[in-house]
Amino acid sequence: MTPELIGMMLMAVLGAVVLYTFIGFIPGTDETSVLAPITLAVVLSGAPPEVVLAFFVSAVVTLNLMNGIPTALVGLPGGVMSAPLMEHSVFLRNRGLASETIRKMAVGSAIGTVVSIPLSFILAGLLAPIADPIKAQTPVILAAGTVLLALLGTNRILALVAIIPLALMFQALPTLYRSVNIIGEKGNVNISFFLGITVGPMLITLLELLNAKRRAALPHGTRTRTSLLRSGFESQALMPGRMITRSEGRWSALMAAVSTPLFVLSPVGLTFLLGEASVARQKKDPVRRAQRAVTVMSSLTHSTYLAGVIIPLVALGIPVSGVSAGPAGPLFNAPPVYDLGNNLHHRLQLPGFIAAVVVGALISVVITYVIAVRWSSQITYFVMRRIPHEAVLTLFVVFILLLAYIDAGVPNMFGVLLVGVVCGALNRLGVSYGVQFMTLYAAPGIITALAAIA
Question: I want to staple 356 with a disulfide (CB 3.0 to 4.6 A). Which of 50, 87, 102, 338 is the partner?
Fold first, then answer.
């Protein structure tokens, strides 16, 4: 590893920390919609694989912690992964403990990161010897993963029913493009559809504004009022031992370890399930219960995400988890730079993986830890006052339309619109991102199997 490459990795990590620190403080952003497009841009820029991986890991660590801070301070979830923390965070905020909650989140995130990375590499090493037989059954594995995620969702029956229609749509549009020479025989627009899925719920919300009745039913002439406690603007001690109890630390490490082998499951579901399990017997003191919950859940948001990308990437090279198929999708499939037969799994050796992950995770967790403890209230105040939420969302929508145009011209912009509307509507009805992303990757195998049956 050359000094030039190390310098590029450090720049990528610091860039991710700066960017996702501010994005993470914006309430209502979704992890997939803000991680995948920018990671894709880094991939398409031609950055070395080590730089891409270090950037993504740093972005995950930064975003997952920063998303929890608006939840603790103003009761607005920063992203999907912070939703499980909402109830406990709001309870502690109402007790005047918002600043202490953020400090516990910071320590929990550090514990989850430190525990999950070595365990993920160990599990990847155990899976690597049987990787070839596993990859030989890729269509079956992807289809099975899609069904598994559907069964773990909130609306199981609809999610199962939606798999085949979504697969037909994902395969039909490229076939139509090829039939009229919009793309070549080997052309691929999967990355456009991937981004169409990410923007789907937001697109549905924007299109609803064109409906006069729905627009009239929205709140008018009011603003969301938030308040920040003065104690949050004071400097705080940085020693982790002073911020959490031994019990909170032990439960955070234990649940991070338990969640790592379960990397194929939904990170949100695991965070909620294991986080609540950690406080199941803590019923006497509601404050202590809530404090342990936010610490453990912060640990889980990091461990589930990191395991979900490290293990499939190092051991298999195919997306077999919700994280690898969603936010980390560009690391596996980003034509023309990466595809399922030539991605980071094939371009990096184990030392390269370890170096990129360790550099990206440790630098970002140290920086975000200090930011969360010392300056979270100041940054929240700045972002809420000075950065329009709409401007950030518009930037991502425009970026996705640009990539759709680059992939297959104007027709594909409307194709992505179709994908976004369908997937956004299904998302609202309970068909999760994970099911939709896995269906995108499993679609060729599903349609081939259907054709064989016919």
Answer: 50
